[in-house]
């Protein structure tokens, strides 16, 4: 006889936002809820409208568990841009269409500026006039940078007549709120996603296996490599760089380079994998960026959905390369300056963006001088040194991206340059051998040939369903052990 006991306190926690434990893909509560979600999703396989409503409702619940009551901002952006696109399409003259796209820009960028940049801009203005600015207590909603950019891409595409506006608000709400990519990307284009919404639900054997592989690899990168080396090494170095030698600071920078890649790409892999299990295709978002032999190649491989968004909607809008070389270099620097500011309201992000913008402009200038064609790749020893230089330039920029202020960044650079002390390296390895083992594993996997990853993916695809289940359960168990936490259900069964 089966009996069960319900813990109503934990059941209530499932429906209440906890600012100390926002929901993410690698959290225990999501793993339980997603299992229940899949069962209902499959039951609604042939009921399209009910399935769209269910997924949209779950997406809003997911966002509520991530940001609390600020889910109304998601609804505001959705409703506003849906009707703006309809009005834009109905406009018969160019100035009307332009007016409506400006309204969309004002709404989306206005929300982004208020929640993300009010205090930063207040500090800047106060420093210019010699006054003081008291910060407002403004909560930054999770993912606001992603869903505003995603919704903006829709209205801009309608303005450019690249797509026709939707006539069903539910379809647009489904597109904007689709939970796999809602809080951390990738930024999904309307032209790629909207045609998939009303297709019959179909998940092939290959899609299912690839989805499991991406979820497993993403979970491994995010919850094991990134989280572990961050908590146990990287944070300690970056919090107090002057307490550590130069070699320790340098290892901390290398660790952060791996951590941020595994964090961002791991979450993207899980998002793409979950979407595949639900019958939807997202484009690849990271493509082994540290294999890049130039900064231009790096931005073709790093956060591809963001870099392509900045290129298509900002760089090209500024004139791109159509108005001469000097204007092209300026457009690159402006684009990356704003791209840095998009990441966060801090001068450190601005400097990070400017470094990348100047590097992109310098690389374009070098390509012009040497007569090399766009997309032409180097080989052999030239490529080796190109990868080495590009990787270390990116790592140098990460110092400013990670630290909260300039002084800490400069302290870290000073420690690396003046108090290196390489004799401490063996002691460092002995004291943090688990961290360095994971770092070595992470970099080895990153620099492996692409065909190895493809072979692993095909192996997972060929596994029987039981094998895939065992793989996921083993990985979840490993994540629990690494984090020293337990996934506690709210229903306890007794046999």
UniProtKB/TrEMBL annotation:
* UniProt keywords, alphabetically: Acyltransferase, Cell membrane, Membrane, Transferase, Transmembrane, Transmembrane helix
Tell me where on the tree of life, at the top rank, the source sits. Bacteria
Quote the InterPro entries the UniProt record gives: Ac/AlaTfrase_AlgI/DltB, AlgI, MB_O-acyltransferase, MBOAT_fam
Q: Name one GO cellular component term.
A: plasma membrane
Is Oxidoreductase there in the keyword field?
A: no
Q: Where in the cell is it found?
A: Cell membrane
This chain's protein is named MBOAT family protein
């Amino acid at each position: 006889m089966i009996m069960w006991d319900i813990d109503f306190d934990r059941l209530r926690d499932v429906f209440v936002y906890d600012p100390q434990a926002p929901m993410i893909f690698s959290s225990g509560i999501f793993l339980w809820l997603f299992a229940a979600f899949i069962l209902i999703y499959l039951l609604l396989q042939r009921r399209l409208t009910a399935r769209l409503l269910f997924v949209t409702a779950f997406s809003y619940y997911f966002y509520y568990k991530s940001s609390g009551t600020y889910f109304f901002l998601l609804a505001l952006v959705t409703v506003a841009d849906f009707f703006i696109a309809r009005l834009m399409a109905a406009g018969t003259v160019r100035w009307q269409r332009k007016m409506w796209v400006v309204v969309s820009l004002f709404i989306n960028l206005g929300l982004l500026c208020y929640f993300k940049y009010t205090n930063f801009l207040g500090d800047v203005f106060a420093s210019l006039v010699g006054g003081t600015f008291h910060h407002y207590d403004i909560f930054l909603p999770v993912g606001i940078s992603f869903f505003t950019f995603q919704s903006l891409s829709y209205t801009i595409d309608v303005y450019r007549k690249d797509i026709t506006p939707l006539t069903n608000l539910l379809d647009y709400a489904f597109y904007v709120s689709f939970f796999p990519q809602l809080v951390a990307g990738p930024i999904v284009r309307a032209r790629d996603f909207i045609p998939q919404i009303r297709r019959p639900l179909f998940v092939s054997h290959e899609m299912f296996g690839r989805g499991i592989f991406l979820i497993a690899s993403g979970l491994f990168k995010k919850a094991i490599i990134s989280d572990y080396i961050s908590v146990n090494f990287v944070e300690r170095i970056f919090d107090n760089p002057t307490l550590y030698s130069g070699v320790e600071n340098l290892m901390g920078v290398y660790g952060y380079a791996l951590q941020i890649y595994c964090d961002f790409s791991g979450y993207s892999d899980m998002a793409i994998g979950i979407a595949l299990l639900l019958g939807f295709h997202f484009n690849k978002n990271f493509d082994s960026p540290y294999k890049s032999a130039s900064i231009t190649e790096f931005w073709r491989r790093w956060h591809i959905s963001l870099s392509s968004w900045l290129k298509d909607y900002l760089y090209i809008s500024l004139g791109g390369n159509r108005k001469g070389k000097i204007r092209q270099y300026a457009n690159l620097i402006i684009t990356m300056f704003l791209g840095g500011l998009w990441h966060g309201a801090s001068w450190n992000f601005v400097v990070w963006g400017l470094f990348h913008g100047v590097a992109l402009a310098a690389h374009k200038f070098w390509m012009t001088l040497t007569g090399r064609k766009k997309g032409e790749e180097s080989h052999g020893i030239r490529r080796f040194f190109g990868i080495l230089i590009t990787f270390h330039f990116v790592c140098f920029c990460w110092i400013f991206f990670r630290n909260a202020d300039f002084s800490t960044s400069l302290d870290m650079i000073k420690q690396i340059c003046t108090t290196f002390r390489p004799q401490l390296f063996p002691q460092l390895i002995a004291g943090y051998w688990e961290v360095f083992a994971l770092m070595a594993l992470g970099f080895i996997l990153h620099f492996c040939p692409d065909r190895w990853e493809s072979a692993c993916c095909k192996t997972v695809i060929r596994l029987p369903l039981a094998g895939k289940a065992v793989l996921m359960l083993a990985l979840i168990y490993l994540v629990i052990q690494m984090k020293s936490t337990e996934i506690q259900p709210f229903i306890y069964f007794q046999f």
